[in-house]
Predict the structure.
Amino acid sequence: MKALALLSGGLDSILAARVIMEQGVEVIGVCFVTPFFGPDNARSAAKTLGIKLIEHDFTEEYFAMMKSPRYGFGGNMNPCIDCHGLMLKTAHGLLEKFDASFLITGEVLGERPMSQTRGGLNAVLKLSADRDLVLRPLSAKLLDPTKPEREGWVDREKLYDFSGRGRKRQEELAQKFGIKKYPQPAGGCLLTEEKYSQRLKELIAHEGLNRRDAELLSGGRHFRLDQRTKMVVGRNRSENQRLLDEASQGDMIIRPAEGIKGPVGIIRGDISQDLLQTAGKILARYCDRLEDQPVDINIYHNDKKESLTVMKPHEEFVLKWQI
């Protein structure tokens, strides 16, 4: 008997997989990848459990769902119920490929105010392909028996009745299993973060939802130059390097000239000479020159280099453009 476990990498998903492994079922982890959440925690969890991990990118399906989530958004841009439902539906499509019979999730009744109420858990199941194949081991005794329980694939008596937002019982079970390494409870999803959600809303309003730009939203300073043109400026060395790594054909790289300390910026979109002057001033604001002093700026675009000199502006100037 095999099962696929939705493995976020959080403690609940680790415990859910381990509880079923204890019953002699072979468990394979599945984590889903989009620009909003990645596989790092799941990789660590799979290593802790000693199981295989499938990393499944379903960005296009996720973007389509976000256009009009059936159950709406949470406090920010997080469509939690529709997200979990899409994960289950997608994972159901992987069962045959990996010769697995049912799905496992780490959901706990009452732990999250939107997606893990009894109504929320039922709503998630409505979006899945086959609700009877979804087992929630940590709260199973508080829910209706599923096919794996009724058919004797797992012993219902060895499942749990966890509920509520407290973590004590989970931590005790982790100690029993000797599981010491797991992340502290947190969203793990950029869509739950207020600042990221604001940037995402702004992107959708101006340019629509696309992967290339969504991947840049999590770091840097963001500036809207016009309806179709945007600039991102790094805040530290690692962000500067990330911008250089993320730059693609057609992007403009803007940075201070040699001998001037300052950040790297990316400009995406069609840009006039007037806007290029504005972009140069924005970058100059973060260079090591005094206000109203000249700053030499280099711009690289399609293997060509252009230079300009701007005066370092006051803070009020950049705030007019900042998202």
